[in-house]
């Protein structure tokens, strides 16, 4: 974990901005081939609905006319938040490290979900010994720590992976997500906060107050509208790592499945810089955390599933992988009208 050493050669924010100015686009040739083949397969046009859109999306971002979902990776980033000390979660901050141990010994939900799809599950620990600063009193991180965490996240997008599922573990990260969303897209604590792990009533009112305190503290910075600066000020290490992973996946032609509220909020930093920066990402589900629905609207994403889940850990991203596998299987494996001797549509 020397990604956090001040001497490491992580790109600066300026270098990240340069990468963002020159993002690769979709492979239009692969996309055109998919669209053409869809018309030849033995089904009425459009009858596979969103599966057809997914096949096209996979091909466009993998840069291959035959989309492949054989080597999914699940990357879960764990981080510690200073704001957790303000009592914004139903659980104490030490649960983050305890859950990392649980991931490593196979006892968490994500272990079962990853096993059920034969995915390569990796846990990426940020600096769990040193929580970020409490962002109601100052910036959560400086630029170096943020950029180092982004660089660490970039390592998850290794060549050979077909699809990258992203998720997080970090007590208080629905507070971080809500604050970051309000900073990026406007609104107040009440607009973006929800129960997270289960805070209700007075505890939820306190969570909202904490978010509003943070928004008031960083008012001048928020007015500058610099998404990377906001990621540093009111984000967290695992948020920066997820943003880095999304960016590296784009460069490496790996489509991405985003998980719930915290994960989508992290990726939304890139959307706030360039509204096409998440075109290679799909949001796996609509989290039961209410802020997620608002966020999905802000970034123009239609989630794949709506299962009432609110766990994090990349759980819903893992759950959505079979939909991508099904889309690729139909597209690649179905017979054409000519091959099967099936009559095509009446003239
Ligand atoms: C045992 C346990 C396992 C989890 N796995 C994911 N989260 C989820 O809950 C946390 C966010 O909610 P909040 O903002 O309310 O703290 C994150 O760690 C998230 O990944 C968990 C939370 C707990 C308690
Ligand atoms: O949607 C999420 O990411 C989420 C919701 C509640 C708790 N932790 C994560």
Automatic annotation (TrEMBL):
Sequence ranges of Polar residues compositional bias: 1-10
InterPro entries: Nict_dMeBzImd_PRibTrfase, Nict_dMeBzImd_PRibTrfase_bact, Nict_dMeBzImd_PRibTrfase_N, Nict_dMeBzImd_PRibTrfase_sf
EC numbers for this chain: 2.4.2.21
Entry keywords, A to Z: Cobalamin biosynthesis, Glycosyltransferase, Transferase
Reaction catalysis annotation: 5,6-dimethylbenzimidazole + nicotinate beta-D-ribonucleotide = alpha-ribazole 5'-phosphate + nicotinate + H(+)
Pathway: Nucleoside biosynthesis; alpha-ribazole biosynthesis; alpha-ribazole from 5,6-dimethylbenzimidazole: step 1/2
GO terms of biological process kind: cobalamin biosynthetic process
Catalytic residues (positions): 313
Pfam families: DBI_PRT (PF02277)
GO MF term set: nicotinate-nucleotide-dimethylbenzimidazole phosphoribosyltransferase activity
Protein family membership: Belongs to the CobT family.
Protein name as it appears in the record: Nicotinate-nucleotide--dimethylbenzimidazole phosphoribosyltransferase
Origin species: Reyranella soli
Lineage: Bacteria, Pseudomonadati, Pseudomonadota, Alphaproteobacteria, Hyphomicrobiales
Gene symbol of the encoding locus: cobT_1
């Amino acid at each position: 974990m020397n990604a956090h050493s001040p001497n490491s050669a992580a790109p600066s924010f300026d270098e990240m901005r340069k990468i963002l100015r020159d993002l690769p686009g979709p492979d239009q040739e692969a996309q055109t081939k998919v669209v053409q083949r869809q018309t030849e397969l033995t089904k009425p046009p459009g009858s596979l609905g969103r599966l057809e859109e997914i096949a096209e999306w996979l091909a466009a971002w993998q840069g291959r006319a035959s989309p492949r979902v054989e080597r999914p990776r699940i990357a879960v980033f764990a981080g510690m938040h200073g704001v957790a000390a303000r009592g914004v979660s139903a659980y104490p901050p030490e649960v983050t490290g305890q859950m990392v141990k649980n991931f490593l010994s196979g006892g968490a939900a994500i272990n079962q979900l990853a096993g059920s799809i034969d995915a390569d599950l990796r846990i990426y620990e940020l600096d769990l010994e040193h929580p970020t600063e409490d962002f109601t009193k100052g910036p959560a991180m400086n630029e170096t720590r943020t950029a180092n965490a982004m660089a660490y996240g970039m390592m998850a997008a290794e060549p050979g992976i077909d699809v990258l599922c992203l998720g997080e573990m970090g007590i208080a990260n629905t507070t971080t997500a809500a604050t970051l969303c309000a900073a990026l897209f406007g609104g107040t604590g009440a607009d973006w906060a929800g129960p997270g792990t289960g805070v209700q009533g007075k505890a939820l009112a306190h969570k909202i107050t904490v978010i509003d305190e943070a928004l008031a503290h960083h008012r001048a910075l928020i007015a500058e509208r610099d998404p990377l600066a906001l990621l540093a000020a009111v984000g967290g290490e695992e948020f920066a790592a997820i943003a880095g992973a999304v960016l590296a996946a784009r460069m490496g032609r790996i489509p991405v499945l985003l998980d719930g509220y915290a994960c989508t909020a992290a990726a939304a930093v890139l959307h706030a810089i360039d509204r096409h920066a998440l075109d290679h990402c799909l949001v796996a589900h609509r989290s039961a955390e209410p802020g997620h629905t608002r966020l999905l609207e802000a970034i123009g994403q239609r989630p794949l599933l709506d299962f009432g889940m609110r766990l994090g850990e990349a759980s819903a991203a893992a759950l959505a992988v079979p939909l991508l596998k099904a889309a690729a299987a139909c597209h690649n494996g179905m017979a054409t009208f000519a091959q099967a001797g099936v009559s095509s549509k009446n003239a």
